[in-house]
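Data deposition worksheet. Section B asks for the primary sequence of the deposited chain exactly as it was used as input, without tags or linkers unless they were present during the calculation. Section C holds the resulting structure in token form. Section D is free text for depositor observations; keep each observation to a single sentence. Incomplete worksheets are returned to the depositor.
Section A, Depositor: J.P.
Section B:
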Amino acid sequence: MNKHDKKTDQAFVQANGIQIAYDILGDPDASSLLLISGLGSQMINWHEDFCAEFTARGYRVIRFDNRDVGLSTTFDDAGIPDISHLTRAHNQGETLHTPYTLRDMADDAAGLLDALKIDSAHILGSSMGGRIAQIMAIHYPNRVRTLTSVMATMGEPGYQPPKPEAYELLSRPVPTGRRSYIESSVFMHRILSGTGFPIDEAFIRERAEAAFDRGLNPGGTTRQLAALMAEGSSKDELGKLKAPTLVIHGSDDPLIPVECARDIADTIPGAQLLIIQGMGHSLMDIPQAWPQVIDAVTLHAT
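Section C:
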């Protein structure tokens, strides 16, 4: 096995008071690229072929399971938040009380770098992971060499709401049966993938099978969603950010409108913006979009 081989062994560290599952691909002496997953997504959501493109370009790629998903520490004792209650409270301007926050999740990511003895890294986060990456850049500026925020919001209110069929996906319970979970994944990506990239249902089913077999935590997905809902706007803090930033979004995103990306790029000093035509709220399940993202991140993170 050479240093660019796609296969890797997962490992575990204690960081920020929890156990974090992670793996590393690439040359140990290369610049580190930390990938932060989105809502309910395990680290294997970052496809090994996608990661291998970065290792071939001279990066050491680190994937990990966020808290409450995959093989990292779960918070089942905290119970399952009532999302409808949180939605009503949020709409009324009330403070939301959740088992943990996105700041806690950003602290996890920084703690993982500590445990791996990595002083700083290029950070790439997708969807909720993009929001976590932003918060990490705000609170750990010396740890973030560059920031890439993909398909994310900065928590600022007032944008066009998600399309109803996309918003409805957030309230759907995660199926607990293997077959129903796989079919639900296909249904979800039909809605989220956008108009420019036809989905490969066999590819999506294969990835859903791997996620199910590795281990789901539906309650954890709900708790992560609660943390996302409870996070306020980061616009003021992002306006002072010094980390070189790249913002990537799909023109057809039905969940987070592309105006969010434009506003993030306008808010962060010197930020670059890449709008991928025809892409929706999906990246890892449309390999046709990977080259644009990989080329842009490689150019950015040099």
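Section D:
The two ends are 27 Å apart (CA to CA).
Residues 1-7 have pLDDT under 50 and may be disordered.
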